[in-house]
């Protein structure tokens, strides 16, 4: 893990020119496999202890070694997220630029192998260690939003939606989770209102996520009002007609949830 972390830092420091011989895809997959292996070994160790106990009562605890691996994996994942991008664009994104033109063809990140690897790794981390997954979402994604890189904003939006669902599904109490959910939907709201077409479109598409609807929007009227108000404002005031129409359609769908 130390070697991977050093390589991740190298990728972050040399974002514009990836060092020869370093493959982010391969490293992300390796981190994912290490997390899974560590969790498997810990689970087997706990099961062996459980089998040896006469009373059949044992509470599985995350060891210091497990925490060390998950913490290192979280740092690596943060470096991968912050060094990955398809192209950077200006913060003044109201009107298309050459950067936007070259990026628009790859706006759908579903087919990007690195994005899929990063999302899968983040989901694995949140599954085996919800506390580390929550800290990753708060410290890497929400507090350090990549306002000047469109492709990274789309990646972060995708990660936030996946982590919200994964963390909400974990049977584990986390005292920071409620505030993180509020902050996450505030960020989604800001992205819905983004002047950049791709960011606004990606954020609007999250309104169709059935898991987000049932786990959050239907259970918290404040979150539902936050999203529906942003969609309503977009339908009236966004500079792009396509986003206006898309927001109007999503707002009509939100009315069924109110």
UniProtKB/TrEMBL annotation:
Record's GO cellular component terms: protein phosphatase type 2A complex
InterPro entries given in the database record: ARM-like, ARM-type_fold, PP2A_B56
GO molecular function ontology, one term from the record: protein phosphatase regulator activity
Pfam families found in the cross-reference section: B56
GO biological process assignments: signal transduction
Protein name, UniProt field: Uncharacterized protein
